[in-house]
Specification:
The complex is a heterodimer of chains A (233) and B (88). Chain A contains 7 helices and 10 strands. Chain A has helices at 22-33, 51-56, 72-84, 117-122, 140-152, 169-179, 201-209, and strands at residues 2-6, 9-13, 40-45, 62-69, 89-93, 105-110, 153-164, 182-192, 216-218, 221-232. In chain A, the strands form 2 sheets. In chain A, strands 3, 4, 5, 6, 7, 8, 9 and 10 form an 8-stranded mixed sheet that branches. Chain A has a two-stranded antiparallel sheet with strand order 1-2. In chain A, helix 5 (140-152) packs parallel to helix 6. The longest helix of chain A has 13 residues, at 72-84. Chain B is 41% helix and 5% strand. Chain B has 3 helices and 2 strands. Chain B has helices at residues 12-23, 43-56, 73-82, and strands spanning 10-11, 86-87. In chain B, strands 1-2 form a two-stranded parallel sheet. The chains are: A alpha/beta (233), B mainly alpha (88). The A-B interface holds A 22, 189-192, 218-221, 223 and B 44, 47, 50-51, 54, 61-65, 67-68.
């Protein structure tokens, strides 16, 4: 078991549960910046150990935080963290939105895997243990959730999607523009792959050549980017 | 003011300002500064420094792998000077 600490949120992260990444931190920073603009019923889809849910509990106008993950191990982990923080969060096992009612959420936060499956298999973040059924270009899961999200939002509902260049980001952006009337980039940050990923240069080169990912080789690292999009019905 | 250094490099003072801006540090950066003395200088801060320096140098720093392992402002000076991209 590892621990995670960020902006006052202290979590335990069980083995086999996705450890919150820099993308989770971008999401948390953005949510904290949304004073008065996030309220009602909020869903943390792909909650993992519950980091985003626990940040949301700090927002005064948030009525109820709901959270789900396809992994029962993650849900148990998130429930334990919520109890430790004395935060009331409704947490369920759910494949996408399957456990939730339609037209219910004011805000959906999707922190689900959008990384090329081939890349995820060798990325140390996934520890080789976490199922990542995202397809070679990393878009399968995210685009499915993007298409389903409008049905679960209330009128004027919003959602947030991180889009990583470790996937075919243009395809994900196109799916967002089809599903929502407003698509706005609200944050962007550049990162580098762990140095040990340099030994997978052949795979990374092949994925890049196919357009499945978009990375830059600089300073001896592979650089990639997360863009955060807020979308509205 | 545009640098007069042959090859279009930068001056040490400009480098230190670039590091400060990249880190969004609230004080001036000194040659002795390291990740231990500037709280914003974490791994992502280091990447921000590299990207900013590369931008200032028109993409000529991106192939210098040693920049990734610099552990002080002075290290950046030494490495960039060695590659002819920095003057005093």
């Amino acid at each position: 078991m590892k621990t995670f600490s960020y902006k006052g949120v202290e979590l335990e992260v069980d083995k086999g549960v996705f450890y919150p990444t820099e993308t989770s931190k971008i999401l948390m920073d953005y949510l904290l910046s949304l004073d008065g603009r996030i309220e009602g019923n909020i869903l943390d889809l792909g909650c993992g150990s519950g980091a985003v849910s626990l940040i949301l509990k700090r927002k005064k106008k948030v009525h109820t935080v709901y959270a789900s993950d396809v992994s029962s191990r993650a849900v148990q982990n998130a429930m334990r963290n919520a109890r430790r923080c004395e935060a009331k969060v409704d947490i369920r096992v759910s494949d996408g939105f399957s456990a939730w009612p339609s037209n219910f959420f004011n805000f959906v936060i999707c922190d689900i895997s959008g990384v090329s499956q081939e890349l995820a298999r060798v990325l140390p973040w996934f520890g080789g243990r976490i199922d990542c059924d995202t397809g070679r270009d990393g878009t399968a899961l995210v685009t499915r959730v993007i298409q389903e999200t409008p049905r679960y939002l209330k009128k004027d509902g919003k959602a947030i999607f991180p889009v990583l260049t470790l996937s075919r980001s243009t395809k994900i952006l196109k799916a967002m523009k089809c599903a929502f009337s407003k698509v706005k980039k609200v944050a962007s940050k550049q990162f580098y792959l762990p140095i040990e990923m340099n030994k997978h240069a052949v795979l990374i080169g092949a994925l890049q050549a196919e357009g499945c990912i978009e990375v830059e080789q600089k300073f001896g690292f592979y650089l990639w980017k997360t863009d955060l999009y807020e979308v509205k019905l | 003011m545009k640098s007069s250094f042959k090859g279009g490099g930068m001056k040490t003072r400009e480098l230190l300002r670039t590091i400060q801006a990249a880190l969004e540090a609230d004080r001036n950066i000194l040659l002795e500064d390291t990740p231990d003395t500037i709280k914003e200088w974490d791994s992502l801060g280091h990447l921000a420094i590299l990207v900013s320096i590369d931008k200032k140098l028109g993409g000529r720093a991106s192939k210098i792998k040693k920049l990734a392992t610099c552990s002080s402002a002075k290290d950046f000076v030494v490495v960039l000077k060695k590659h002819g991209l920095l003057e005093d």
